[in-house]
Amino acid sequence: MCGIMGFLSDGRPEETRAAVRNMMAASRHRGPDASGSVEIPLAPGSANYSLVFGHTRLSIIDLSDGSRQPMQDAESGSWLAFNGEIYNFRQLRAELENLGMKFATSGDSEVLLKALARWGEQALEKLEGMFAFAFWDGLSRNLLLARDRVGMKPLYYYAGPRGFAFASEVKVLERAQICSLTVDHDAVDSFLAYGAVIGPNTIFKEIRELEPGHLLRVSARGEVAESEYWSLSRSLADSAPADCQDFDHAVAEIRERLEYAVSSHLVSDVPVGVFLSGGVDSSLLALLASRYAKSPITLLTVAFPEEQFSELPYARQIACGLPHHHEVVTLTPEQLRELLPFALGAMDQPTVDGINTYVISRVGAALGLKVLLTGIGGDELFGGYTTFTKVPRLLRYGAGLRPAARVLAKLRTRNPIQWQKVADAGPLRNLAEAYLLQRSIRWRQENLRAVSRPVQQSVQESIESLANDFQKLAALELQFYARNQLLRDADVFSMANSVELRVPFLDTRLIEVALAISPGYHFEAGSGKRITRRILSELAGEQIPQRRKMGFTFPWQQWLSRVLKETIACTLRDKQLYEPLRLDPAYGGRLLDGLERGDRLQSWSEVWSLFVLLNWHCRTGVEYSVA
Predict the structure, then answer these.
(1) For the segment 89-113, what is each residue's pLDDT rounded down to a tens digit?
(2) Whole-structure pTM value
(3) Which residues, 6+ apart, have CB-to-CB distance to 521 below 8 Å?
(4) Homologous superfamily of domain range 234-382+479-540
């Protein structure tokens, strides 16, 4: 929805204002419709400190100037800078009106502001939505920052000698020019291992990510305290088991909650679209959105000339029965090559994914859409990834499979890289280690285990209290893969085109219900998504063909070997780019040689990730820290 930023500084007020102006200019893509800033008076004892909020607005709910931000609650003297959507804001407004509060707008920003002014931190328990916000409490004279439960909306901060600053993107915070930034060696290693920088670290040592379900309390003198207000493991432990007597009951309960989530995510005063890839999750969203939308919606499908990667026939099967416009765009590798500089320029931190989201959002923006619903979360909640079956087997049988895996990796098997991972794996102590090996894209490097150790410890601790392997793997997919890659990329690359992506599958109650259901209900004949496939069949009015999961991804292997080959090779063979990042100058050449000779153990993702990293560092020009 927006870009938020702010600076609590012990320096001169004009320097604080200048830093926020710089961040606002860098955040224009997140909010092209309006912008504003405010200098907030601090307590008498904070004479040397100054606080400035900034905001850039993408107008979606209540398009009037009355909902511009930063927004003040005159009664309490509080201020809000908010990014996101509160889907149950109308219910909260009614509750606050019953307590005597008056409203001047019809939007959710004012509801959030007054809820925080009335209930303080306890307001977080009542919120349904995606959000990141900064709230200056006019009564306690403290600053509160918070982020939604699963990390749909980002928030980054700097806390150091120059004060405390925050923003919606790392590169926006970088533009504040508060301090010298140094690239974090551990972050580079984690990116090369997994395709994403693992939070709460960022690519810069000086900038941190506020974790999902967390809040920060910042005093008027810049003292910072972080705490957790929600966690998946605690939520599942506290909630009652799902009352599902059999599979049909499970389907009914999931369908009821999914219908509620989709209907609530349609709230908007601008046109809404649905990204219809043709898979189970996007098809469900299209059918349910059509049922609950109060105005026409646009169904958007991106296809490829390479038919084996295109789900267009399945998307058309769903769209043909709906009374909505279906826009189909075929993306060629030549078109992607033209778009690549813009997509890479939009990148906040290095990521192996996200270019597909950039393309989708760009097409949506060209159609006049500001809001798109996407199916992120469906695979994580309902067992759609092969990790749900492969990881437990890898942990249980990995040692025994190792001799055979060495042979199978060399044969014309379907997934030679997966077999090679099994062959190369050392002893696996727990589910987290097996999962991280499965998710790795640079598994052959000797330092992978060292890179992974702190990550392994963190993710293993986060799932230890969960009841079964299904819950644990779903939590890993949500808290590791979705949080660090899918959701981060969804926000950055959609907002680069001034488009908001909404994710109904990550409704908190839907998460809790899906993970409380008996794991056996999610699988049939070794395949997941049994529940959502049943709901799709019910809604579509016909039997949806059973087919292998594809996932929405570009034909990278072919494109990198052909049309994009020269672009990639030019960067990877430039040995001067490696030394600042302390990487082996011969590394890229080895990857390219493997790709050119058709080595089936050379993954496109490893080639692409190195290209992305080198390209990102060239664009930032930040010196690498040797500390």
Answers:
(1) 999 999 999 999 999 999 999 999 9
(2) 0.95
(3) 244, 247, 250, 530, 531
(4) HUPs (3.40.50.620)
